[in-house]
Amino acid sequence: SADAESSAAKAADDVVTAAKNAAAPRFSILIAAWNAARFLPECLASLRAQTLADYEVLCVDDASTDATAEMLDAAARADGRLRVWHLAHNGGQAAARNVALAEARGAYTLMVDADDRLAPDALALLDAALSAEHDADAAVLRLVCFEDGGTETEVPVRTGRRSLSGREACLLSIDLSLHGLYALRTDLFQAHPYPEQPRRYADDTITPVHYAMCRRVVLTRATYFYRRHAASCTAALFPEKLDFIAAN
User: Fold this and answer.
1) How confident is the model at residue 149 (pLDDT cuts 50, 70, 90)?
2) Residue 209: which pLDDT band, with cuts at 50, 70 and 90?
3) How many angstroms separate the CA atoms of 52 and 126, rounded?
4) pLDDT digits over 10-36, tens only?
5) Secondary structure percentages of the chain, helix, strand, coil, to 5
């Protein structure tokens, strides 16, 4: 009968959904890469070195013209946790990240730029902080800027508290008293993806929204190393710097 067929189909769907959920990793890591061959190996090595191995890496090659595509494909062949998409046309960092975000299966999602890296215990510390506070929807990383010469500078967070309401975190992020490097519950992230216009500074635009959606936001000692160099798309001087005004 039709009812029996419908029940059987639903049961089959439930089995597939349960299997997918059982295989879902703790973290999804988004990497948008455009002509990143110079720094990409260091970034990927920092992920392979994580003490917590329960993660997936979703990489999008944004129509690179250097060896980025080949590097990502080789990394995916070597590690099944890494998946790669190749875009035919350059769409910008936000659009590339959104391609990966739509495929994220982890409980929490964070982004890592292709020229940056994570400390080996970063995911483990994020996991511990999120597990310790049952209503935490986001965990903020410790941000350390570095240069190729070895100089490191921690970016201060202008609050002495380690746990904030979503509203408090949102207000602090507006003037960058609280930066926008965090692991966020994936369903919230997917409900509020990166704005693709203007093409740059999507982080500044979406961060207050993400924080506002959270019940609690916890600050951690998980370290994100942000590379400062002249080729960075947010460090260079070009007419599109006006995107910063539009984003804000």
Assistant:
1) confident
2) very high
3) 10
4) 655 554 454 455 589 999 999 999 999
5) 40, 25, 40
Q: Categorise residue 117: left if φ over 0, alpha if ψ from -120 to 50, beta otherwise.
A: beta
Closest-CA residue to 66 (of 99, 49, 41, 47) = 41
Closest CA to 224 of 126, 130, 122: 122
128 and 183 Cβ atoms separated by less than 8 Å: no
Ramachandran category for residue 209: left, alpha or beta (phi over 0 → left; psi -120 to 50 → alpha): alpha
Length, in residues, of the chain:
248
pLDDT at res. 197: 73
**And the tokens for 246?**
């539009």
Q: What is the pLDDT of residues 160-181, one digit of tens each?
A: 999 999 999 999 999 999 999 9
Rounded CA-CA distance 175/208 in Å is 10
